[in-house]
Amino acid sequence: MTDSVLLWLRRDLRLADQPALLAAIEDGAVIPVYILDDDTPKHYAMGGASRWWLHHSLESLDAALRAKGSRLILRRGVCDVELAKLAEETGAKRVHAIRHFEPWWRNAERAVAKRLDLACHDGNYLAPPGSVTTGSGGQYKIFTPFWRALKATLPPPEPSHVPAHISAPTHWPKSDSLADWDLLPTKPDWSTGFGKEWTPGEKGAHKRMKAFADHADRYDETRNLPSVEGSSRLSPHLHFGEVSAAQVWHAVADAGGSVDVFLSEIGWRDYAQTVIQQYPDYGTKNGRDTLDDLGWRTGKSADADLEAWQQGRTGYPIVDAGMRQLWTTGWMHNRVRMITASFLIKHLLIDWRKGERWFWDCLVDADYGSNAVNWQWTAGTGIDSNMFVRIMAPLVQSPKFDAGDYIREWVPELAGIKGDAVHDPEEAGCRPRGYPAKIIGHREARERALEAARQAR
Ligand SMILES: Cc1cc2nc3c(=O)[nH]c(=O)nc-3n(C[C@H](O)[C@H](O)[C@H](O)COP(=O)(O)OP(=O)(O)OC[C@H]3O[C@@H](n4cnc5c(N)ncnc54)[C@H](O)[C@@H]3O)c2cc1C
């Protein structure tokens, strides 16, 4: 009888280019397991949109495993406790897993390693986070030199194929039922727009990747235009590990044109992991302390403004379009993420951590490292950062990046406004009655933010 081993799956929900799966197959009969653990991440338990994604991704993974003679075992609880229970029930001699870098996953890996024989493998990034170092062996803090050094190690290894067969244990342990986990919203069901936009799972990831490969050469020309589908929309698939960074790299690297700009964005994803390795509490703590005393607005009026921002009712069409796209589909265009984040932080003078939280709950690609790095970059609090005093002007950004059709799509009250008036209907004198007036004027907001920055020094 072959010994069995556990394959502990987390954000690596795929069969192709899955080094932990390959190692497990070499080691014995494989018991793939996903543990829903809301205790270990605490503040960072998965948000609503991510849970929707997870449900469908696990369903798809189970089907793919069954086609290979295997299946997915589901358990709920603290990872090390549940894995130890499973090892005892099945006699599994080892646990194979892909390594993850969120601080709670690092803690969980330490806890598992205390109880069981844990073999961690690298496989979700272009290079193992922490492996790209400066001349003196330190970690990079700034993206550009990090990317230069990372690029010198590339291309990443050729991705491995889906194994032909996965050997099964003689007896399968019991599994929870996915439906009992209640990952999908019911009352109310806010996810109807998600299904129209996304196909979670490995197949959906590959379909999206192939579709993008056809226009990857024009990435730089179109990626900043919210009205055009110019970027890959691979972020949730990459986040959940339904496709690896190496697979994406090899699928597009020879596209020519401006594909190098796209590859550098994949580099940003690696960079975010380097940052959270060095600063594990980057999601809640400023990377630089110079703005620790910034007088963020609090109280009733700030709360009302936060709610208007969340609901896409600020009176700034580009901001409102982005926030409504986020709510409806669980995703927002990158340029608009920058505009909406800057608006919350600088125009409304609300602490970036409140925006980080909202994105954490609403994004299907909510990713601890990428979310924190980008919020802190926008806030000017990060270790590699924009300056706080560089304030984005949404009403300039909107026509500059030709966002008219995007606004008309996501803000139905403005759908009938033709031409450039849609960027600022209030100024053009055609604001429909149902659409709010600006929550604050741009100049007034800018002066308030600059004054707050002066006071903080
Ligand atoms: C305030 C704010 C919060 C963000 N939060 C997240 C988040 O939680 N999760 C997330 O994956 N991205 C986040 N981003 C980064 C970026 O907006 C998304 O990765 C991108 O919009 C995803 O769309 P795409 O797949 O079409 O990207 P593409 O432009 O096609 O890029 C390809 C891939 O590169 C990676 N990538 C691209 N831009 C960045 C970036 N700036 N930082 C890190 N990785 C990047 C993503 O994995 C993306 O799928 C955030 C950006 C901002 C400004």
Could you describe the 3D structure shown?
The protein has 3 domains: 4-123, HUPs (Rossmann fold, 3-Layer(aba) Sandwich); 125-156 and 201-278, Alpha Horseshoe (Serine Threonine Protein Phosphatase 5, Tetratricopeptide repeat); 289-456, DNA Cyclobutane Dipyrimidine Photolyase, subunit A, domain 3 (Orthogonal Bundle), CATH 1.10.579. The longest helix has 20 residues, at 259-278. The chain is globular and about 75 Å long. The protein is mostly helical and 457 residues long. The protein has helices spanning 19-27, 48-66, 79-90, 103-115, 143-151, 192-197, 202-213, 219-222, 235-239, 245-252, 259-278, 300-311, 317-329, 334-347, 352-362, 368-379, 394-400, 404-410, 425-428, 442-456; strands at 4-9, 29-36, 73-76, 95-98, 118-121. Strands 3-2-1-4-5 form a 5-stranded parallel β-sheet, sandwiched between helices.
Topology:
Elements: E1 4-9, H1 19-27, E2 29-36, H2 48-66, E3 73-76, H3 79-90, E4 95-98, H4 103-115, E5 118-121, H5 143-151, H6 192-197, H7 202-213, H8 219-222, H9 235-239, H10 245-252, H11 259-278, H12 300-311, H13 317-329, H14 334-347, H15 352-362, H16 368-379, H17 394-400, H18 404-410, H19 425-428, H20 442-456
Parallel strand pairs: 1-2, 1-4, 2-3, 4-5
Helix pairs in contact: 3-4, 5-11, 11-16, 13-14, 13-18, 14-16, 15-16
Flavin-adenine dinucleotide (FAD) binds at residues 223, 231-235, 238-239, 265-266, 268-269, 272, 334, 337-338, 341, 359, 363, 365-367, 370-371, 374-375, 378.
